[in-house]
């Protein structure tokens, strides 16, 4: 993990720190982060909570969209997110890797794959980010 990058992202997005998100890469082509399993992030049966996994994907997806903003844009915000959960996670960690699928002037679509510590796909998330303009 990249501690300096993690600290910078946690300052930019305080919720990333609350989750315990650890940054791996942060570029326009790929944003990757890891979230360690902990009982505090679980639902019943000690299974990683889907909301925590969605928050991980939303965080990396938003950073990916931010890197791909067109000139003159003021920011981005999630307007739609679709998650397909494929398996439960009961230990270890989950890695999120986000890539831009479409970069436009009004919306950016990002696809994020979540995998467990063994490399098995846990979920796929597709999100649409609105491009915000300065007022």
Mind explaining what this structure looks like?
There is one protein chain. This protein is of the alpha+beta class and 135 residues long. The chain has one domain (3-133): Thiol Ester Dehydrase, Chain A (Roll). Helices cover 25% and strands 43% of the residues. It is built from three helices and six strands; from the N terminus they run ααββαββββ. A six-stranded antiparallel β-sheet has the order 1-2-4-5-6-3. The N and C termini lie far apart (37 Å). The model has no long low-confidence stretch (mean pLDDT 95).
CATH topology: Thiol Ester Dehydrase, Chain A
Radius of gyration: 14 Å
CATH class: Alpha Beta
Element-by-element helix/strand order: HHEEHEEEE
* Share of helix, binned: 25-40%
Characterize the overall form.
Answer: globular
Sketch the major β-sheet. 6 strands, antiparallel
Number of structural domains = 1
Number of strands: 6
Just name the CATH architecture. Roll
Distance between the termini: 37 Å
Proportion in β-strands: 35-45%
Label this structure with key terms.
135 residues, Thiol Ester Dehydrase, Chain A, 6-stranded antiparallel beta sheet, 3 helices
